[in-house]
Known about the structure:
By secondary structure, this protein is an alpha+beta fold. Helix content is 41%, strand content 25%.
Amino acid sequence: xxxxxxxxxxxxxxxxxxxxxxxxxxxxxxxxxxxxxxxxxxxxxxxxxxxxxxxxxxxxxxxxxxxxxxxxxxxxxxxxxxxxxxxxxxxxxxxxxxxxxxxxxxxxxxxxxxxxxxxxxxxxxxxxxxxxxxxxxxxxxxxxxxxxxxxxxxxxxxxxxxxxxxxxxxxxxxxxxxxxxxxxxxxxxxxxxxxxxxxxxxxxxxxxxxxxxxxxxxxx
Length: 220
């Protein structure tokens, strides 16, 4: 399995801390109209990351990055490292003051195809913040490939082939794990998920057979 220096502990921690400081020093987050709108916060966070991300990594790790490059990707930001690994980054913001948040990550089918190439990395960049007395405070930045997310904190949503979701953004559990092990666990999860979806569809088919019979027997 391919390894990237970006996820070595010192490099990863340095990036997370540098980006956290960039966000904390951004003056746009002092505007009360922005603070009151999670969407506005998310949009500005994405803009800041788009501009600042390359400079937040220790020197010598990033080889290819541009705004145009990012727009062609399957997520919010994209780049290559010096070893020619390809990263797509899904940026998520979470207001810790909210009781419940269940963000989508990616399609199981799209991820399975993307991960057929060991040099591809799908990364979730989670930015957490609190709002108190109309003040926004960034509390944490985490940068992890999706395979570091424990299935204890993930679920599958019924959209298309299935959508990987964080079950509750207030509870995140990450641990270093092998991609092969994580993908096999994904297959186990889908082995349970799909039969349940088939059962739901069967009930809906039965229901609308009854609806058809009702209307066929009804007088014009």
